[in-house]
Amino acid sequence: MSESKTRAELFAALQSLSDVIPEMRAGQLMAAIGELCADLHGRGLWDAADSELLEAVWQFRRNFEAATVIAGRQEAEQAASANGGSV
């Protein structure tokens, strides 16, 4: 993929992620992605390639969605046990 296409995809992925997690401010989102990118590639926001940041955005979204599913499942189980029923 060309650099310009990768950059365009990165910005689209950031916008999509921002829509999924509207409670996070842009700076918070970028900082979290930068930290994850450093964990994945050893390079943070300043040094990472656009493709590495894009991968970090995808990973951050997968992690967020997995955590959201787990939290939702736990809430459903708690509600069911409080009502004496099952999930």
Outline of this structure?
With 87 residues, the protein is an all-alpha fold.
The coarse silhouette is: elongated
What is the helix/strand order? HHH
Structural class: mainly alpha
Q: For the CA atoms, what is the radius of gyration? A: 17 Å
Mean pLDDT: 89
Number of domains: 1
Distance between the termini: 45 Å
Largest sheet: none
Helix content: over 70%
Uncertain segments: none
Count of helix runs:
3
Would you count the extended β strands for me?
0
Tell me the fraction of residues in β-strands, as a range. Answer: under 5%
Structure in words:
This protein has 87 residues and is mainly alpha-helical. The chain has one domain (3-82). It has 3 helices and no strands. It has helices at 3-20, 26-41, 50-82. Helix 1 runs parallel beside helix 3 and helix 2 packs across helix 3. The mean pLDDT is 89.
